[in-house]
């Protein structure tokens, strides 16, 4: 399982732009997705990047909790 997300700066013609990256399941594999957010110095871009990270981690916590419950049920059911 690959879990993670973040932001990075990408300069274009001398100006920094903010990108959000995260992992998604595509078929049977995990791939890194990169999405443009906006100009790095923009308050809107910074807020949007933070919102996307928070949203990603909330979904990841929910998914990990679901897997935890499922795995423990399987272990307890096998005894």
Note down, in words, how this protein is organized.
The chain is built from 1 helix and 3 strands, in the order E-E-E-H. It is α+β, with helices and mostly antiparallel strands. The protein has one domain. Strand 2 and strand 3 form a beta hairpin.
Summarize model confidence as the mean pLDDT.
93
Radius of gyration: 17 Å
| SSE order, one letter for each helix or strand | EEEH
The portion of residues forming beta strands comes to 35-45%
The major pleated sheet works out as: 3 strands, antiparallel
Instruction: Describe the strand arrangement of the main beta sheet, using strand numbers.
Output: 1-2-3
Topology:
Blueprint: E1 5-12, E2 15-26, E3 29-39, H1 43-77
Antiparallel strand pairs: 1-2, 2-3
Defining key terms:
79 residues; single chain; 44% helix; elongated; alpha+beta
What's this, in brief?
The protein has 79 residues and is an alpha+beta fold. It is built from one helix and three strands; from the N terminus they run E-E-E-H. Strands 1-2-3 form a three-stranded antiparallel beta sheet, covered by helices on one side.
């Amino acid at each position: 399982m690959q879990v993670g997300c973040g932001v990075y700066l990408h300069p274009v013609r001398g100006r920094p732009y903010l990108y959000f990256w995260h992992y998604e399941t595509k078929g049977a594999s995990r791939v890194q997705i990169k999405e443009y957010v906006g100009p790095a110095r923009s308050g809107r871009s910074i807020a949007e990047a933070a919102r996307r990270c928070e949203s990603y981690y909330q979904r990841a916590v929910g998914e990990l909790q679901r897997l935890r419950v499922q795995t423990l049920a399987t272990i307890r059911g096998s005894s």
